[in-house]
Specification:
- This protein is α+β, with helices and mostly antiparallel strands.
- A hairpin with a 4-residue loop joins strand 13 and strand 14.
């Protein structure tokens, strides 16, 4: 008579386990849904293996973006593009709906993003220690604005572009650029959020400011502006 009792206990335990697992799954799913998502989509590119010229092509909605594979492209052996690769210009954009094609003078592209609500293509480019953000009106296939910043890779938070502060160190101080929080206007141009930019700089560097300054101990609680002895 003990077996049925054991079966009941086991069945009850399994049922409770299923309920707990389901609850945990639902809770996890609700957390995922509540997380903010970026309004920016990064374009994925594939190589067009037409040697000696190798091009990379990416698609988003009804737009086709084509760029030249960078120097050393002859080493490419497949159509797969590594996400850390970069491209040379010029950039060709085609609207497959209207058939319009335009060429843009954009060089050294490390990533391309599309912002749906403003119909803007954002090209993340580099030159030495500087980053150039090129905002393109996708419909007109025209550059609306180029913003020069000193920055590591971009971050996104919903409709906002986060340009984190960056520093170049020397012996006694570091030259640090402030962070920027941007959105894109209907005119496809960057809009700087001053307060949020100040707070981002303060969070990362340790003190808030605008522009480029010489900072001692950046990224710590001891962060402070460098003042030459002649001015002390």
């Amino acid at each position: 008579m003990k077996r049925p009792y054991c079966l009941i206990l086991i069945s009850t335990a399994i049922a409770m386990s299923l309920v707990l697992s389901t609850n945990a799954y639902c809770e996890s799913a609700s957390k995922v849904k509540s997380e903010p998502r970026s309004s920016f989509t990064r374009l994925q590119f594939t190589h067009v293996m037409a040697r000696p010229v190798i091009q990379s092509v990416g698609h988003i909605k009804h737009y086709e973006v084509t760029m030249m594979y960078p120097a050393g492209g002859e080493k490419a052996t497949s159509t797969k593009v590594d996400e850390h690769e970069s491209w040379e210009g010029p950039v060709t954009v085609k609207d497959t709906e209207s058939g319009k094609v335009g060429t843009l003078d954009i060089e050294l592209v490390s990533a391309v993003y599309y912002h749906d609500s403003t119909d803007t293509l954002l090209f993340d480019c580099y030159s030495g220690s500087m980053t150039y953000l090129v905002f393109v009106d996708a419909k007109k296939i025209a550059i609306a604005k180029t913003l020069e910043v000193y920055a590591p890779p971009l971050k996104f938070d919903k409709d906002k572009i986060l340009v984190y502060p960056g520093c170049e160190a020397s012996d006694s101080w570091s030259q640090c650029s402030s962070g920027l929080v941007l959105t894109i206007s209907k005119e496809h141009k960057p809009v700087i959020w001053e307060k949020e930019s100040f707070e981002l700089t303060k969070k990362v560097i340790g003190i808030g400011y605008k522009g480029v300054h010489k900072i001692i101990d950046p990224g710590t609680k001891k962060a402070r502006f460098y003042i030459p002895l002649s001015q002390q």
